[in-house]
Specification:
single chain; 19 helices; globular
């Protein structure tokens, strides 16, 4: 069920009334919220519910065992084994099977590895990540032992089970257990939902249908300028789509009295790859930092090992997005970018505290970082490495002397949007502040007029969430 569907709107409105009116008891509300979360999962498939139920039971039993007779090492071993098996068979088996089959064929070995027709359960990657935080928090005694219903709700919490953000047990469980749960800033919640609709229905949908999809489906059939503009468009398309989804679920969660973690902070303001990952998909980058990069040794075992750890972490980030060579290359590109930033700081120690860069240098660094991120987006969006290479080759044939005045204006405008991004970000903040301070009547009138204009301009259909497939 899509969060923008009419069925969800009606269902959520009824649910919200029941959630707040039928009982003031937190346990009752948690039961209602858990039932709604499982109802959303079952709307996708019964298999998804069975997997979620089974995994929740396993995690809860594992948490109980950690208190009584299992060592930390045994608990973590069982957890990692369960996650690896689940992700391998549901998410990566086909990729591995096809890759091994291809290698065997190249060596002239005629052996057919059996294929598995398994549908990826909705939210699998996210509740696996949530379970790592849950078990880690219990083993390290950062939280008290939750009840079964609290555990089930934490793993299935419907606003974030489809596309995140990735919740931490020590942040979400106290809110689930809070007996004084109330609505959180309802005007801001509705503003975030309206912002999500604007990003997804207007900007993301138009960029995708008009520019991105046609060019990425056949890059050789378009000019070098059109290819470049399609890459720029995809950078904003995926940002509007994913950050719009985050705005949506943040607003929905606030209406339930729960705050989910921040996931975006103006990522295209970043001046280097390290800063980009402090602003983009924040919950994922922090998860990988805390549960992969740091356990590997982080930056505590010398510069060379630090670089290897960074590359491994970024490749894992790429692999998390899907079982495809394009995602691995995307992760490696970002790994190289972060390593290059570290090498630069090693050779030229960062002294920005004493000598902060001026406005011009900051904007140049921002533009360079944006273009490097766009290089990665080419592989991320392309159906195969070959398609990405065709697009890159087409772009490389561009000659400034051959550009028409219209093409030059288009390229300058696209780069100007990036440079003006700080201004757009400030305007957005001002509108959000206004929406929280104005009276309800004025706010509802402004909201109605804005959404009416958005729906009048948007293309037909309901936009999909890109990250729902990861």
């Amino acid at each position: 069920m899509n969060f923008f569907s009419f069925e969800f709107l009606i269902g959520f409105s009824i649910f919200l009334f029941i959630y707040w009116v039928i009982s003031n008891d937190t346990r009752d509300r948690n039961i209602i919220l858990t039932a709604a979360s499982y109802g959303l999962v079952v709307s996708f498939s019964t298999q998804a519910v069975i997997v979620l139920l089974s995994y929740t039971a396993f995690i809860y039993i594992l948490s109980l065992a950690s208190y009584k007779f299992l060592t930390k090492k045994a608990v973590y071993t069982l957890l990692i084994l369960a996650i690896v098996l689940l992700l391998f068979f549901f998410k990566y088996y086909t990729f591995a099977q096809e890759s091994i089959q291809s290698v065997l064929s190249n060596f002239g070995i005629d052996y057919n590895i059996p294929a598995l027709d398994l549908l990826l359960p909705v939210g699998l990657s996210y509740y696996c990540f949530h379970s790592v935080s849950y078990i880690s928090s219990i083993v390290e005694k950062r939280i008290n032992k939750p009840s079964l219903i609290d555990t089930a709700l934490y793993l299935s919490f419907f606003p974030s089970i489809i596309s995140g953000p990735i919740n931490r047990a020590e942040q979400l469980l106290p809110q689930i257990q809070n007996p004084e749960r109330t609505l959180l800033a309802p005007q801001r919640a509705f503003f975030l939902i309206a912002l999500a609709i604007t990003k997804l229905f207007l900007f993301s949908a138009i960029l995708s249908s008009k520019i991105v999809d046609p060019v990425f489906n056949d890059p050789a059939g378009f000019t070098p300028t059109q290819n470049i503009l399609a890459v720029y468009a995809y950078a904003w398309h995926i940002y509007c789509n994913f950050s719009g989804y985050t705005n949506l679920v943040t607003g929905i969660a606030m209406l339930l009295g729960i705050q989910v973690p921040e996931n975006f902070n103006a990522p295209y303001l970043a001046k280097n790859l390290k800063e980009f990952w402090q602003r983009w998909h924040i919950s994922l980058s922090r998860f990988i930092r805390d549960y992969i990069y740091i356990p590997l040794g982080g930056n505590q075992k010398g510069f060379a090992t630090t670089c290897l750890n960074l590359m491994f972490a970024m490749v894992v980030s790429g692999l998390w997005h899907g079982a495809a060579t394009t995602y691995l290359i995307w992760g490696a590109i970002h790994g190289l970018g972060v390593i290059a930033h570290n090498v630069q700081n090693k050779i030229f120690p960062n002294n920005q505290q004493q000598h902060p860069p001026n406005f011009l240098l900051s904007r140049i660094a921002q533009l360079l970082c944006f273009h490097y991120v766009c290089l990665g987006w080419i592989f991320f969006r392309s159906e195969s490495p070959d398609t990405a290479i065709v697009m890159l080759k087409t772009i490389c044939t561009l000659k400034i002397s051959d550009l028409s005045s219209t093409e030059i204006e288009s390229l300058l405008t696209a780069n100007g949007i990036v440079l003006l991004y700080p201004l757009w970000n400030k305007i957005r903040g001002s509108i959000e502040s206004f929406s929280e301070k104005t009276n309800w009547l004025s706010f509802l009138l402004w909201l109605t007029l804005t959404l009416t204009a958005v729906f009048a301009l948007t293309p037909p259909g309901i936009p999909n969430f890109i990250y729902a497939s990861f």
